[in-house]
Amino acid sequence: MDRRIGALDVLRGVAIIGTLGTNIWIFTDPAGPTAFLSSGGDAGVVETFLRFLSNGKFLGLLTLLFGVGLELQYRGAVRRGMSWPGRYLWRAALLFAEGALHYVLVFEFDVLMGYALTSMIVAYLIGRSDRVVTAWMVAAGTLHLAMVGLVTMALTAAPAGGPLLAHPAGWLDQVHLRLRNAVLFRAELVFIVPLGIVLFLLGARLLRAGVFEERGARLRGRLMAVGLGLGVPLNLATSFAGPAWFAVDRYLLAPLVALGLLALITSIVLGMRGSPGVLRRGITNVGRTALSCYVFQNLAASALCYGWGLGLAARFDGLRPWWVPVAWAAICGSFMVLSSLWLRRFERGPLELAWQWAYQAPWRARDQVRR
Q: 162 by DSSP, 3-state: which?
């Protein structure tokens, strides 16, 4: 049991670190986030390869882990004799509120809102029969494939041009920009929710199949063969195929690679013996404070790159892409250290503590009476 939980913490940590590996290219673009929307991530050979290493893969991994977490929440509710989804819907509502604040105040491409909406749907499916779950996965997967196909055809017919909107330097102006253009910046939810339904339910099924336990060795081997053996070459090809293949690259093949990464990292963790080293402890602590680290990394990247902070995106544009991995490593190192220091005194991260307090607030008085 401890090994399984340990694997989940490491996986969450890797997913958070890898997510910044994707987002750092958005923060460091001198033209701002809207340039990423209009270009579809078009770049030179070196930058394209560096983006390939993370783009979409760790988002897919994080999505699978949300599904695992939802399954664990469901099991806990059943074990305690609580109604389901019951209080979980309040948990999802808080996650949506957290994501909305993160979107408005910090980052245009927040994923928490999409995960919250997805979890509200999947919460009603998690305990259903295999037949019902399979039907939903097929339906959501079909819808997702259709949307990816339509977007790819549209991009092939009409390649993207320059930045859609000018990105202001001031923080307050950036907030206003996000509020005025919420439909544009939140358009990714159209992909996140159907794909999320598939990956949430798949994550729950993988947990039940024992993928995080010793008995899941054969299953992990198959996932690595498909995700890494097949997914990586195809993903590499679409990364260099041009902006028209952006949707296939990010929303179709990258999640396939994420399955291989989940299996590979789990196998490595389960095969470890002895006390964890400094790196593993740091990654594990990031996983234990995943929400705090996710928000912190975007705040730190904003402060480093945008005009209201140090403005490094414009200053170091001539050093692109070489300085970008350095910025990523510096931010990752900082929140690995900070999370480790924080957990010496507290059981949860700062945002996790605040979130837990808000989650328990509506029932605190009633639960105290029962005690």
A: coil
